[in-house]
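ARCHIVE CARD
SHELF: 3
SLOT: left
DATA:
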Amino acid sequence: MKRILIYSVLVAAFSTIPVFAAEDPIATRKAIMKNVGAAAKAGGAMVKGEAEFNAVTAELALRVMNAASLGVGELFPKGSETGGKTTASPKLWEDRAGFDKAMAKFQTDTAAGIASKPADLAAFKVAFGTATANCGACHKAYRVKKE
C-alpha cells in the first residue's frame, strides 16, 4: 500500500510537467532538481548512518532520480540560457552532445540501481554512489559554481 501511495504521488507530480515546462522550462527544471536533491539527501542520510536503511526509501530515492533523468535534459532549450536565476552554465549549450551523453549515463545508472533492488545498506551504497556520481560530474561540467 505504501508503494502505491508513493508511486501515485510521483505520477501526479510528474504529470503536470509538460504544461509547466512549456511555460517556464527554467522553473520546471529547478523544481525537478529540487526533488532530486531531496532524494539525494534522503539516500545520503542512510549512507552516512544518519538515518536507518529503509529499502522503500532507497528505491524511491533511485526512482526519483531516474524519473528526472528521463526528461530533464529537454528542459534546457535554446533561449533558456539566462533568466530565472538559472545556474546552468553556457557550456551546456556549447557542448550539448556532452550534456546529452551525461544525462543518458544518469538514466542508465539510475535504472541499473533500481533493477539491482538494493535490499541492504551495502548494496544501496553501491547503487546510490553510482547514481550520485553523475550528479557531481554534471554539476561540475554544466553548472555555474555557487558563490
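SLOT: right
DATA:
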Amino acid sequence: MRALIAFVSGLACVFGLSGPVFAQNLIRDTEIELMLRDYTDPFLVAAGLDPNDVGLYIIADPAINAFVTGGQNIFMHTGTILEADDPLQIKGVLAHETGHISGAHLARTGQAMNQAAIPMVATLGLGILAALAGESGAGAALMASSQQFGALQFFTYTRTQESSADQAALRFLEDTGTSPQGLMDFFERFRYQEAFSPARRYPYFRTHPLSSARVTALRNSVANSAYIDQPETPEEIERLQRLQAKIYGFMAEPGHVFYRYPETDQSLPARYARAVAYFRDARMDDARSEIESLIADEPDNPFFQELYGQMLFESGMAEESIPYHRRSVELMPQAPLLRLNLAMSMIATDDDEYLEEALQNLRVTLDMEPDNSFAWYQLSIVHERNGDTARAQLAVAEQSYAIGNNARAMQFAARARPQLEPGTPDWYRASELLSVVQANLAAENPRQRLTFSAR
C-alpha cells in the first residue's frame, strides 16, 4: 500500500478538489481497489453507467466518509471500510453514491445554491429597507435571519437529494440481487450522529444528513425487498476481514495492531495485520515469519507476494524483492500497480541488466493507466539510463501533463521534439502535447502569448 505523491497531486489538479479533501493521502492498493470495484461496478451497470467512466479512489483517513466529486468520481475513506460489520454495509454506501452520480446531483448543487441565495438576498433587502425606514430593530432582525432562510432552502434540496439517492440505491441493490439490509444497518448504526453538533459528526453524516422521515421511508422499502434475507457468502465476509486487517496494519500504530490482533490469534486476517505491523515496527524477522506463513498457506495469492516484495524493497533489499514482485505479476498480469512495483525494484538495483524488463513492465502499466504520473517518472529514469535523452524528456513531459503542470510539460515536450525522428509515434505525441498544453496555458493566461519552437 503506497501513497504515490505525484499521482495524488495529479488528481488534485485534474479534479480541482479543495484542500481539506487532500489533508489525507490518497492510496493505491490493488487488493482494496479490486474489492471496491467488485462491489461498485454492478451498481454502475444497473444505473446505465460505464464503469470505465467512473473513478474510484481511496483516502487514507480513519473517519467514516464517502462522497462523489469531480463529476463521476467516488471517494471512499478507509475508515468506512474498517467500521463496516459486513460487505453489505459498504455495498449499500456505494450504491447510494452511485445514486448521486446517476441523478447528476453534483451538477445540480450549484443551481440549488443559486436558488437558495434568492430568499437570502430578498430577506437581506427587506432588512435594509426596514432600517432605512427607521425600523432599525426589525431591519437588524431581518438581516440576521437572511442566511437562515437561504440555508433552509438549500437543506430542503439536500434532503430531497439524499432521499432520491436512497431510492436509486434500493433499485440498484434490487437489480443486482443484493440485500439492502446493509444500507439500513449502516444508517441505523450511526443514527446517534444526528444528536451531535455538525463539528462532531463523522464527515459522512455532515454531508449526508439523516432525518426521521428519510430513515422511515428507507426502512419500509428495505422490508419489502425480495432480497432482504439474502446474506453475504462466508468467502466475501472473510475477504473483507482480510482487507480490514491489512488496512489496520498499515494505518494504526503497531502497538494497537498487536492489541487488536494478538499472537494468540492465528487466523489469516490476524497474521496479515501483524505482518504489516511488524514491518512498520522495524521487526523484519517477525515480519518475514508472518508473511512467509501466509505464502505457505496461499502460494498463489499475488497480494502476499506483493507485500513481501514491498517489505524487502522498502527495507533496502531491492534485489531480493524482485522474485516476489515478479511472482505477483505472473499471478495477476492485468494489475498495473504490481508491474509498477516490479519495475521500481528493478530500477532501484542500478543493474542495467534489468532495464529492458523494467521498460516492458512500465509500458504495460501505462497502457492500462496512461495518467499514472509516477510510472511516467520511472520510465524517464529508464530512458535516461539507456542514454535516450529525448524519450526521457518526453516521459517527463507526460508526467508533468498528468499532474496538471502545463508549463513544465510544454518545456520538456519542446526539448524532446527536435531530437525525435519526425513522423514517429513519439514525435507525434510530443507535437500533440505541445499543442494541448499551449492551449491550456493560453486559457489560464489569456493575455500572455505563448510560443514554442517547431524545429
